[in-house]
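Hey, can you fold this one?
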Amino acid sequence: MKPVPILMADDDPLDQLLTKEAFDEAKALNPLYFVENGVELMRYLRRERPYDDTQQYPTPGIILLDLNMPKKDGRECLREIRSDARLQHLPVIIMTTSSREEEVFHSYDLGANSYITKPVDFEKLVAQIKAFNNYWCSIVELPDE
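Sure. Predicted structure:
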């Protein structure tokens, strides 16, 4: 099984750190990359500077997307990803604190592949990352770059 690069778009440095630690604790071998807002996410995906170096910034196999970010929110990014023929194949998993039903429905309407509500407890986050990793990186067939 080849490790799948994962790109997480989340503006909260603590959420980034906890997610990284949860991936480490879950022994997930997937390299994890971060951007802090939707503008940076789209620059990364479109290979705009400074993300044009594919060795340093590999094409993600999966995107973890927060909904509420500055500059461009996750909903706008999801809309753009799904309307871009070069990007629309990428699995996008919403990973956010909101569990509001209308957010879940709207995310799926926009083309999200999954919707995950971030737990506040670290052990629950680790368990969630283990399940995520097992499903998305072991069971699911993902397209090659």
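The radius of gyration is 14 Å. Let me know if you want another pass with a different chain boundary.
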